[in-house]
Design goal:
6-stranded mixed sheet, globular, 8 helices, binds magnesium ion, 5-stranded mixed sheet, alpha/beta, 11 strands, 263 residues
């Protein structure tokens, strides 16, 4: 599904990034965008002084522009957007260096809290996260978050195998990972090939910058170098900081792991 909002947001993000970083490869969900005739007020030129005042981790200081790939999902949770669940909608911009997801932002354009409207969560491995208040999930429960609109029999089987005390069904990879970062769920489980590299690059980097883990259902990391195939064929498994990712992988039924490994 694609709306005018998806296309417009992508144009604005890709044009802004490529003007500033012409040698960085930017891959957007909506395919190649026509960047001619973009209105000047769609180009973002300002910086976050709060983030730029931080010290860049040493491992990133000498990276060449050519080694970066930026993965853009201009609107994650489009189904929810069209159905009015706008709080599930996020804008995802993930930064990979060679094959590894290292940083990114999850922006919530419709976030509302205490008079605050919209917020931007950021993370960089080796530096940390910001833009929100992280929290740990409750120790006396085991809450899973999963798809709201793309469930299947296998997806449900994987959830049931983990014996959750509660299952949250929400839209968007960005929003699900935010639930882990905010302590609302312990793990995000989606045993289906439905999502793509632009869905997971930013969420993976931010979650892992905070001590969580995001992999496929078999426990292996996806790779994000430019040219990699887009689909995350082996599903998504993410766990909040402090959870045993390995244990969750082990608790998933072997036949589901085998099924997804053949995708
Ligand atoms: Mg998406
Ligand atoms: Mg999208």
């Amino acid at each position: 599904m694609q709306t005018e909002a998806d296309r417009s947001a992508q144009k604005s993000i890709i044009a802004s990034l490529t003007r500033k970083f012409p040698n960085v490869k930017v891959v957007g969900e909506e395919g190649s965008s026509d960047l001619s005739n973009i209105r000047d007020d769609w180009i973002v030129n300002d910086y976050s002084d709060a983030i730029l005042s931080k010290i860049c981790p040493q491992e990133y200081v000498n990276i060449k522009d050519e080694d970066f790939t930026v993965w853009v999902d201009p609107l994650d949770g489009t189904s929810e957007y069209t159905q009015g669940f706008v709080e599930h909608v996020t804008v995802l911009i993930g930064i990979a260096i060679k094959e590894k997801a290292v940083g990114g932002v999850i922006h919530q354009p419709f976030y509302k809290c205490n008079g605050e409207e919209g917020r931007t969560i950021w993370g960089l491995k080796g530096l940390g996260v910001g833009g929100f208040v992280p929290n740990d999930p409750p120790s006396d429960k085991f809450i899973l978050t999963t798809t709201r609109s793309h469930s299947t029999e296998v997806v449900q089987k994987a959830l049931d195998a983990l014996n959750p005390t509660e299952i949250l069904r929400v839209g968007g990879a960005g929003y699900k990972v935010l639930q882990l970062l905010e302590g609302k769920a312990h793990a995000y489980v989606f045993a289906s090939p439905g999502c793509k590299k632009w869905d997971t690059c930013a969420p993976e980097a931010i979650l892992e910058a905070h001590g969580g883990v995001l992999t496929d259902i078999l426990g292996d990391h996806y790779t994000y170098e430019s040219g990699v195939s887009f689909p995350n064929k082996r599903g998504v498994l993410a766990s909040a900081k402090g959870q045993s990712h390995k244990q969750i992988v082990e608790n998933l039924p072997t036949e589901i792991k085998e099924y997804l490994s053949k995708m």
